[in-house]
Design brief:
mainly alpha; globular; 2 domains; 6 helices
Length: about 110
């Protein structure tokens, strides 16, 4: 559990990033060779499920239809965050933070 404090700090830093940076993080983790293959497989599996027309609970059922998608997203992000090496998360989040802090060139 020595990484528990570090993971909490990384989670706070990740929450502070804009949505676009979070999508970039997912893409970069997917392409990173140091990422465990089983964890890496969660990303395309989540995207495939969300794009699939069939759901566990159909979307036409008010509220519940969207809750199953939301629950799956939360679970997938949790699995990715829990099983990705801390050093790898730190590296990618640091890069995204520095890119976000850089002013746009005219």
């Amino acid at each position: 559990m020595r990484y528990a404090g570090i993971r909490k700090q990384l989670a706070r830093r990740l929450q502070a990033l804009p949505a676009r940076s979070k999508l970039r993080l997912a893409w970069r983790l997917l392409l990173d060779r140091r990422m465990p293959a089983l964890v890496k497989a969660v990303i395309p599996a989540l995207v495939a499920y969300l794009l699939m027309p069939l759901d566990i609970i159909p979307d036409f059922i008010p509220v519940l239809g969207q809750l199953d998608d939301l629950l799956l997203i939360v679970l997938a992000v949790g699995v990715i965050f829990r099983f990705t090496p801390v050093e790898l998360l730190e590296e990618h989040i640091r890069r995204l933070e520095s890119e976000a802090a850089r002013p746009l060139s005219p």
